[in-house]
């Protein structure tokens, strides 16, 4: 059953250096119900595997362990802190004659290592964005504080993971950039600079339109995870409250408040703060914003995350968390940003439509693709429908997605540029191209085409769709 | 503080013998000449012009008191009026002076009020009963009447620049009949009425010529009427009313300049600004009719700047008492002996000085706080370039909040003018290409000082600003981006050195992700990517010097320049890090590049990488070298 693809999630450390007290090594264990002895056994096993594989390659210990029923993923995000995720292999039940119970067959090759390895890393990044590093918490409040933080965060977070819909895009963890003409882009620059100048508390700004990034003042790695949070968690809660209400596995007690806010904003048709106070005029309004932690490697900055929205434009203003934000600040920001952003949003919309119209009528293309650039994390997919809080919908068969994942694994093994063309069982052609730092995956629906024709088609496609992206032949 | 006065008298005034009982002084606005006539000309006439070419001295017979004396254009013929009936002429061609000849006015019983030269040999007599337009035939020593017009005239006023003559008619004198002159033709323009402050009780001359001036402002002819404060109206002070007088069509009241005070005034026009001198307060006001303050269909204007005196002026002592060593004495400004002439002339007849009034722009910087308005003002001035550039420099170090909005406004104003010039230039060259026959109608656009182009901004403002200590890099980048935004908004192609400046600033502060995003949206790319080469080299240098070898490689690859970079430079830097894996990576990268470029992983002779190849073999062994694939 999909909802319980995660069999176990373990966070353990040998940081406490308590060899005699195995139990204390466990910082977080999901599900909680499991008996302590079993927990200890499982953690011991993981420890053993990691230690054992380390003898073969000290710098690269094992990342995953394949078994018949499960697959285990190991990740050491900080020294001596281990995260383990155990994922159940899909099962197929084969009915038996004579009323015997059906035979269960585990599909051991369905799960792609890179996808779930990335999911595990993402868990850590998301935790770190809101809580900082494990070690910081440990140093500040000992193991008790760390456990408390972990429980608070992961209890909710694990419920929002939708492992069954994870795919290649999770491996990339890319950012979708909004296509925009130079002039409108410069106007946005100008807007951001002016706000940062007049509101000197604002340290960083990120600008998004239509859930796609246009500008980030944050560094790339921080933006990557913030983008993930915004597009898969914060925005969907505010734009699709009905959907979230019906289908979302978010538990009511978690989603309730947010849902309420979301609906109210939607009904009002009013824009404004997506985080912090719903209504500035409310005398009881609280001026509390989510805190995020960025630049953990260097300056370790703690920031208030203010997200402000007008039409399809959303701007994140990040303010040093040591400053308490007041009503005056919020009113000032609202007064400054509100009118300008609305204007800018309609400008962007207008420009976007002009550009789209000038590029000709949109024909249903014969192909679908995923593009990713490792340099700037730019990703583009015509395979995926809009991502929602609940599920990421793809428009192609899971088998094809699996092929994409496999090609990606092949690419990851070798540094050099490559091209792989696969004819899928379902008459589709799948082409993977890796060039420089860029990867392109194309799915062609041309039944009778031969290899040469497919190759020609992809070349043509690169020339028309990616003419400003440099591809090596 | 001499640098706060925005008006000054010209440094080298025209000096002449001061007016006295034996010396009459005349001024001709057309040639800007001062005539000092001693004893009716018998003991000499000295003519001083704005420069020595226009200065001369001669004698003429004393035939009675001179009422008016003027040269025709180019000092060809001298006209002297000594009576109300006739004007006398002296040919100055070929050699001065020859004997006089005379012309009486044709109209019976009319008395001549004065005359004006319209060309070198055409003259208009203005009488109390009309005008007579003559052509002079100097060889024949006679005049030919070209045209005449009969009309009652109270007084007249002539604008030599446009050759337009205004006649005050009717009993009250407030109906003005203008005439325009052009080589032997005279045309009547439509007449207009000047609104008097109050309707006079008796029918008497109510409009004095002292209250009227004509001048061209922004290439348009205006009649300026000094409307005195009237007790019957509620107006708090006097005002100057401007009537626009077009070549064709009707004259309209278009601008009202509020003086907010009363008393005795005089008008000048300098650099398209109307200057109003106020005698009792000894101050002057300036107005710019293009600074918009709309109110109804007449533009009502307040002074651009606070009222200030003309810059105090010192003159050397003259006369027999003066010794060369004596210090100059302060000159009495706004003296009652001053006469003011259009457009920009002030004459002190009693002291013997003629000055040009000048506007100093530098003091306006501190007097006009609104930078947008200041820019509007400066962009329309003649010698504005350096002042505008210093405004730009000044506003960038101010560091006030909301400064960027001001910066943006100023950049937009500058670029609007810049763009208009570029368009005009473009239209001109298109016309030139389409054939010389058509291009004769199209004049090459004049580049005024108000055209501040990218190289001006770069040289005088941006490059030094970007290196200024103590300015936040965030602000520097914001300003540079704002300038680029403004250029783009006016569709002006951005010059590569501006991009280089942005890139340099970003790199110096390790803002690579920002740089990357700019490149991604093609904000920092012009039509010729090769131009960026210099900037890229600089970035690579900075990165290599910081031992960020991989970063440098990543950067150069992101701009697609890795095929042309010097492999040796990178390998040198990699060797210096003492990180053998890094060296391996860099070496392998270039092997692959060589392979791609030439089908062979080996380095070319010219790349001087032999030393590194040897080192590579030493550390990693011969076998680690990439092999050429042989097919």
From TrEMBL, chain A:
Q: Name one GO cellular component term.
A: Mon1-Ccz1 complex
Looking up InterPro entries in the UniProt record yields: Ccz1, CCZ1/INTU/HSP4_longin_1, CCZ1/INTU/HSP4_longin_3, CCZ1/INTU_longin_2
**Family the UniProt entry places it in:** Belongs to the CCZ1 family.
The organism encoding this protein is: Danionella cerebrum
What is one process in the GO biological process aspect for this record? vesicle-mediated transport
The residues covered by the CCZ1/INTU/HPS4 third Longin domain are 363-461
Write down the superkingdom of origin: Eukaryota
- What name does UniProt use for this protein? CCZ1/INTU/HSP4 first Longin domain-containing protein
Q: Where does the record place the CCZ1/INTU second Longin domain?
A: 202-336
Residue span, CCZ1/INTU/HSP4 first Longin domain: 15-132
From TrEMBL, chain B:
All residue ranges annotated as the Regulator of MON1-CCZ1 complex N-terminal domain in the record: 25-143
This protein's source sits in the domain of life called Eukaryota
The record's section on Pfam families has:
RMC1_C, RMC1_N
Q: Which GO terms describe its cellular component?
A: late endosome membrane; lysosomal membrane; Mon1-Ccz1 complex
Outline the extent of the Mic1 domain. Answer: 381-530, 531-605
Q: Give the GO terms filed under biological process for this record.
A: regulation of autophagy
Transmembrane ranges, per UniProt, are none
Query: How is this protein named in the record?
Result: Mic1 domain-containing protein
This chain's source organism reads: Danionella cerebrum
């Amino acid at each position: 059953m999909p909802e319980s693809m995660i069999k176990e999630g373990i966070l353990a450390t040998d940081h406490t250096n308590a060899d005699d007290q195995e139990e204390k090594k466990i910082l977080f264990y999901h599900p909680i119900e499991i008996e302590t002895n079993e927990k200890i056994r499982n953690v011991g096993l993981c420890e053993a595997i990691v230690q054992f594989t380390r003898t073969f390659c000290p710098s690269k210990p094992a990342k995953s362990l394949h078994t018949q029923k499960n697959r285990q993923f190991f990740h050491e995000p900080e020294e001596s802190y281990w995260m383990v995720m155990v994922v159940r292999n899909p099962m197929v039940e084969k009915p038996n004659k004579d009323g015997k119970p059906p035979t269960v067959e585990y599909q051991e090759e369905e799960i792609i290592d890179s996808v779930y390895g990335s999911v595990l890393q993402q868990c850590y990044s998301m935790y770190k964005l809101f809580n900082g590093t494990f070690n910081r918490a440990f140093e500040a409040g000992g193991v008790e504080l760390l456990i408390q933080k972990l429980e608070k965060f992961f209890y909710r977070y694990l419920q929002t993971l939708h492992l069954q819909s994870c795919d290649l895009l999770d491996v990339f963890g890319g950012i979708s950039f909004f296509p925009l003409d130079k002039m409108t882009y410069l106007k946005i620059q100008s807007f951001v600079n002016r706000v940062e100048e007049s509101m000197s508390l604002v340290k960083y700004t990120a600008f998004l339109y239509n859930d796609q990034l246009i500008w980030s003042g944050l560094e790339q790695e921080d933006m990557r995870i913030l983008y993930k949070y915004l597009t898969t968690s914060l925005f969907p809660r505010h734009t699709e409250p009905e959907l979230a209400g019906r289908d979302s596995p978010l538990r009511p007690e978690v989603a309730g408040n947010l849902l309420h806010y979301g609906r109210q904003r939607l009904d009002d048709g009013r824009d404004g703060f997506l985080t912090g106070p719903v209504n500035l005029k409310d005398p009881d309004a609280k001026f509390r914003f989510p805190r995020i932690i960025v630049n953990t490697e260097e300056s370790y900055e703690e920031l208030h995350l203010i997200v402000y929205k007008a039409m399809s434009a959303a701007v994140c203003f990040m303010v040093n968390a040591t400053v308490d934000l007041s009503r005056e600040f919020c009113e000032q920001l609202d007064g400054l940003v509100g009118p300008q952003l609305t204007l800018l949003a309609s400008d962007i919309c207008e420009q976007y439509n002009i550009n789209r119209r000038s590029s000709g009528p949109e024909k249903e293309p014969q192909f679908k693709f995923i593009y990713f650039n490792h340099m700037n994390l730019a990703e583009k997919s015509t395979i995926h429908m809009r991502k929602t809080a609940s599920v990421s919908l793809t428009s192609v068969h899971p088998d094809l997605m699996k092929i994409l994942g496999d090609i990606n694994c092949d690419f990851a093994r070798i540094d050099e540029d490559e091209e792989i063309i696969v004819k899928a069982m379902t008459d589709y052609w799948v082409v993977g191209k890796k060039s420089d730092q860029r990867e392109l995956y194309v799915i062609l629906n041309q039944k009778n085409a031969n290899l040469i024709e497919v190759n020609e088609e992809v070349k043509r496609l690169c020339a028309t769709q990616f003419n400003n992206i440099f591809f090596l032949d | 503080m001499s640098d706060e006065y925005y008006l000054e008298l010209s440094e080298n005034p025209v000096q002449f013998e001061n007016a006295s009982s034996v010396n009459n002084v005349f001024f001709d606005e057309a040639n800007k000449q001062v005539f000092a006539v001693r004893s009716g000309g018998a003991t000499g006439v000295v003519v001083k012009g704005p420069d020595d070419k226009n200065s001369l001295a001669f004698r003429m017979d004393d035939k009675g008191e001179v009422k008016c004396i003027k040269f025709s254009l180019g000092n060809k013929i001298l006209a002297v009026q000594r009576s109300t009936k006739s004007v006398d002429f002296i040919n100055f061609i070929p050699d001065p002076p020859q004997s006089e000849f005379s012309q009486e006015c044709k109209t019976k019983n009319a008395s001549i009020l004065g005359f004006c030269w319209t060309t070198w040999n055409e003259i208009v007599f203005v009488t109390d009963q009309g005008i007579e337009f003559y052509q002079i035939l100097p060889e024949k020593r006679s005049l030919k009447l070209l045209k005449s017009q009969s009309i009652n005239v109270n007084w007249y006023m002539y604008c030599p620049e446009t050759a337009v003559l205004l006649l005050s008619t009717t009993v009250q004198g407030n109906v003005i009949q203008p005439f325009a002159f052009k080589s032997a033709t005279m045309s009547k323009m439509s007449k207009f009425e000047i609104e008097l402050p109050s309707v006079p009780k008796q029918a008497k001359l109510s409009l004095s010529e002292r209250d009227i001036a004509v001048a061209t402002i922004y290439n348009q002819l205006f009649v300026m009427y000094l409307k005195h404060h009237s007790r019957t109206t509620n107006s708090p002070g006097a005002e100057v009313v401007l009537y626009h007088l077009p070549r064709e069509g009707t004259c309209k009241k278009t601008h009202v300049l509020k003086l907010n005070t009363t008393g005795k005034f005089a008008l000048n026009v300098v650099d398209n600004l109307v200057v109003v001198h106020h005698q009792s307060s000894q101050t002057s006001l300036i107005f710019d009719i293009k600074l918009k303050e709309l109110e109804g269909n007449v533009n009502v204007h307040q002074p651009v700047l606070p009222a200030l005196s003309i810059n105090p002026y010192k003159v050397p002592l003259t006369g027999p008492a003066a010794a060369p060593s004596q210090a100059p004495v302060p000159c009495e400004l706004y003296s009652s002996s001053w006469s003011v002439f259009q457009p920009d002339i002030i004459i002190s007849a009693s002291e013997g000085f003629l000055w040009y009034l000048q506007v100093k722009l530098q003091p306006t910087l501190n007097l006009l706080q609104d930078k947008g308005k200041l820019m509007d003002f400066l962009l329309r001035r003649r010698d504005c370039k350096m002042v505008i550039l210093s405004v730009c420099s000044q506003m960038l170090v101010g560091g006030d909040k909301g400064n960027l909005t001001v910066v943006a406004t100023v950049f937009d104003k500058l670029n609007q003018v810049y763009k208009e010039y570029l368009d005009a230039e473009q239209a001109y060259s298109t016309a030139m290409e389409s054939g010389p026959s058509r291009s004769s109608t199209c004049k090459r656009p004049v580049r005024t000082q108000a055209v501040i182009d990218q190289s001006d901004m770069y040289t005088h403002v941006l490059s030094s600003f970007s290196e200024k200590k103590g300015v936040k890099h965030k602000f520097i980048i914001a300003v540079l981006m704002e300038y680029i935004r403004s250029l783009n908004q006016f569709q002006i192609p951005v010059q590569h050195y501006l991009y280089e400046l942005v890139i340099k600033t970003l790199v110096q502060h390790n803002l690579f992700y920002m740089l990357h995003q700019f490149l991604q949206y093609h904000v920092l790319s012009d039509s010729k990517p090769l131009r960026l080469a210099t900037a890229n080299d600089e970035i690579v240098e900075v990165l290599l010097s910081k031992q960020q070898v991989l970063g440098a490689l990543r950067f150069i690859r992101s701009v697609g320049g890795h095929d042309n970079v010097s492999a040796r430079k990178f390998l040198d830097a990699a060797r210096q890090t003492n990180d053998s894996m890094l060296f391996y990576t860099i070496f392998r990268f270039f092997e692959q590049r060589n392979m791609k470029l030439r089908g062979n992983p080996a380095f070319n002779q010219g790349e001087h990488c032999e030393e590194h190849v040897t080192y590579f073999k030493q550390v990693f062994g011969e076998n680690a070298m990439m092999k050429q694939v042989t097919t």
